[in-house]
Design goal:
Number of helices of chain B: 4
Radius of gyration of chain A: 20 Å
Distance between the termini of chain A: 36 Å
CATH superfamily of the largest domain in chain B: Nucleic acid-binding proteins
Structural class of chain A: mainly alpha
CATH architecture of the largest domain in chain B: Beta Barrel
Number of helices of chain A: 9
CATH class of the largest domain in chain B: Mainly Beta
Strand content of chain A: under 5%
Distance between the termini of chain B: 76 Å
Largest interface: A-B, 43 and 41 residues
Oligomer: heterodimer
Order of helices and strands of chain A: HHHHHHHHH
Number of strands of chain B: 7
Order of helices and strands of chain B: HHEHEEEEEEH
Number of strands of chain A: 0
Helix content of chain A: over 70%
Number of domains of chain A: 1
Structural class of chain B: alpha+beta
Shape of chain A: globular
Largest sheet of chain B: 5 strands, mixed, barrel
Helix content of chain B: 25-40%
CATH topology of chain A: Four Helix Bundle (Hemerythrin (Met), subunit A)
């Protein structure tokens, strides 16, 4: 098993293997998102309090979960890159950041659109869940800006990895914010004591969307890391051989 | 110690340092981290007197009073132990109803009435179709009736 990972850590092997995963991830993602969209918008019953407005959950929850998942991947990759000096790990962290930022933005935007009619406000300063999620958006921006500001790739990798690790402390704060402090945001519906507090007919499309978004994210992440690897290794022999082979 | 283990230790110690610093900071700001104050705190006089704050509670059944054609509304909030009268003139959110958890922003007047400038509805984590909500309410009513009979 370890040889598989050691091989994967080498850029040419990663470049080979990832090409085989992307189409699968993309197709699975699109199928699940397609089912989730149709079932969520047309077949799931309306909520007893919110009516049809609850259906924004099918975008909001997957986006919010992936915003944190992308950060976790970024932070773990940063730690692996720092400790084991693995270049591929830094490339993964660099590739995950813009995707995470977009999912964070999507979670904030959908939450705001839902919050206006339901809570009665677009945004509440001081709400721990809202504020900690916004801080994560700024952490992503800071991470990308720091990376872009340093020309030397090795130095950029190290500096941004430290920022990613320090910011990781925000992840449990986002997750537990609704339990630790009184908050306008409701508590968790899916992962809670006593099982999910949601009707099965509403739950299945949501699960499909969560997994669909995850596969979609996986495909995008692999594609991004591949380009990142190519631009980092553009002088390496395997890249040159591959390009020559393709053009010949 | 190999260089790799040294780096592992450095990352671990730095991470632990950040976590401890964050926990201490959050604890220090505990009061400000609370988005709203409980009603019992307000009734016991632990709420800020001269500035605006948020109070959270459930709207008491049959407590909402409003003149037809007017925006002004009066209702009572409860945390099941203590009650607080609230006065508000403005548009209420969709989820505002009796029995619903809400958060009001404003200040206490001299008579102990909370004059709100904003009223927000809090949503809970339950999602269900109306039929399920109805049958749940029916079962709860039947159960309550059964316990009442048993107690007699």
């Amino acid at each position: 098993m370890w040889t598989f990972f050691h091989k994967l850590a080498s850029p040419p092997h990663f470049y080979d293997i990832s090409a085989r995963f992307i189409p699968w991830f993309a197709v699975l993602g699109l199928l699940l998102i397609g089912y989730g969209t149709v079932a969520g918008l047309f077949f799931a019953p309306a909520d007893y309090q919110q009516g049809d407005a609850f259906r924004i959950i099918y975008v909001h929850v997957p986006a919010a979960y992936l915003s944190m998942m992308a950060y976790s991947i970024m932070a773990v990759s940063a730690a692996i890159g720092l400790i084991w000096r693995m270049k591929l790990a830094h490339a993964v962290a660099a590739g995950a950041a813009p995707l995470g930022a977009w999912f964070t933005f999507l979670a904030l935007a959908t939450g705001s659109i839902w919050g206006r009619p339901m809570w009665g406000t677009w945004w509440e300063w001081g709400d721990p869940r809202l504020t900690s999620e916004l801080i994560m958006l700024f952490l992503y921006f800071g991470y990308m800006a720091l990376r872009a500001a340093i020309d030397d790739t090795t130095k950029a990798d190290k500096a941004s990895a430290v920022l990613a690790l320090v910011g990781a402390v925000n992840i449990p704060i986002i997750h537990f914010s609704v339990e630790w402090w009184s908050s306008l945001h409701q508590g968790p519906t899916l992962v809670r004591e006593g099982g999910p507090a949601i009707e099965p007919a509403m739950l299945y499309p949501l699960l499909a969307m969560i997994f669909g978004f995850t596969f979609f994210f996986g495909a995008l992440l692999l594609a991004r890391v591949r380009t990142e690897v190519l631009s980092r290794e553009h002088r390496a022999r395997w890249v040159r051989n591959m390009m020559m082979g393709e053009s010949a | 110690m190999t260089p790799r283990k040294q780096r592992m230790l450095a990352v671990g110690l730095a991470g632990a340092g950040v976590v401890i610093a964050t926990v201490l900071t959050l604890r220090a700001f505990e009061e400000n981290m609370m988005f709203f104050v409980d009603i019992s705190e307000v009734v016991q006089g632990n709420a800020p007197a001269d500035r605006n704050f948020r109070v959270g509670g459930l709207v008491v059944q049959n407590s909402v009073e409003r003149e037809p054609g007017q925006l002004e509304v009066k209702f009572t909030l409860t945390d099941t132990k203590n009650n607080l009268d609230v006065y508000y003139a403005g548009i209420l959110p969709d989820l505002f109803r009796e029995g619903q958890g809400i958060i009001a922003h404003g200040r206490l007047d001299a008579n102990g009435v909370f004059v709100a400038d904003t009223v927000l509805a809090k949503h809970d984590e339950n999602y269900m179709p109306p039929e399920v909500a109805d049958s749940l309410a029916k079962h709860a009513a039947e159960k309550a009736a059964a316990t009442a009979v048993n107690q007699e």
